[in-house]
């Protein structure tokens, strides 16, 4: 009887537990060197740094190796013991530091065991990392050209609200322009300077005296605000973050559907602070702090046995230390959002048709405008032609009349011999 009781308790507990069916992991790369030091930077000599500018450092490799081990532990019940390309898909932006971060992360997630060991002295195995040139990548790099986005952003940058807020930092921007040798005009320019100073301070380089009055306190807020400007309007958010969120949601729906043959359980995206900031801002989670190295967003599809329902949970790990991530409060839904409710809340992002809205739609509009323009031109040309013909006919008749009279009058002044030669 006691054994039956214990079995009942265990079964009741298991049926009441939540189970992760699919997860998407989006993270920022690890520690790196400055990308582009400002003109007057005393530490702009690349030889002073451990690696070339913009590259992942050994510290960054270790950070992602540790994160990979943590992810493996978190999703131990979701993944097979051995790496399975049908279960895991990894994508990175086409940048050295993100590609290297993905590789270091995967080394921590999938150390070879058993038949997976191919070299006893090297407990590592190659795992595919997919990428795409930045100029062609609207999904993760978010840099593919979009006419509609450019137009919307231009309107936003010229809006009174944007200009009024930016004007509060005019003195700071003028100050930075004077001392950095670089024209500082907006939030992104301030973030570039802040980022350089942050890294130099992190590596114990002595900062110039002029920085003491502004770094980090006065420069931090406008710099971190830059991560919300690329998704400032619903349309900008839709075209910037929509493609990635749409792909993730489709994978969730594939996991729920019994008709699909997809066995994908984990999507991993290796990106930048720009990537993390855009997602947080577009989805209503951004707290105004710059995303640190290895900042990680976890989007999980959960099946709850107690309700027989599917839910979405989003977590954010905003530290380079291996700590339990914060479960984010999904606006108007809570920490665990029913999938159908989630789809409705973020329909503006998920329903995006990027190719059409960014390219074909404007191509069609341009084509129609061109046809209308050609039609108007042709109509004006025909009207002008008819009018010209009528005017010409009238003037020609007058010319003929005058010419005949002139000829008649002139015949009286010349001899018949000369007239006959005319």
UniProtKB/TrEMBL annotation:
Q: What are the protein's UniProt keywords?
A: Disulfide bond, Glycoprotein, Hydrolase, Membrane, Signal, Transmembrane, Transmembrane helix
User: Does this entry carry the keyword Transmembrane?
Assistant: yes
Bilayer-crossing residues are 362-383
CDD domains given in the database record: HP_HAP_like
One of the Pfam families matching this protein, by short name = His_Phos_2
Q: What is its EC number?
A: 3.1.3.2
**Which superkingdom does the taxonomy of this entry point to?**
Eukaryota
Give me the reactions it catalyses: a phosphate monoester + H2O = an alcohol + phosphate
Signal peptide coordinates: 1-16
Query: What GO molecular function terms would the record report?
Result: acid phosphatase activity
Cited InterPro entries: Acid_Pase_AS (IPR033379), His_Pase_clade-2 (IPR000560), His_PPase_superfam (IPR029033), Histidine_acid_phosphatase (IPR050645)
Give the family this protein belongs to, as stated in its UniProt record. Answer: Belongs to the histidine acid phosphatase family.
This chain's protein is named: acid phosphatase
Q: Which organism is it from?
A: Parnassius mnemosyne (clouded apollo)
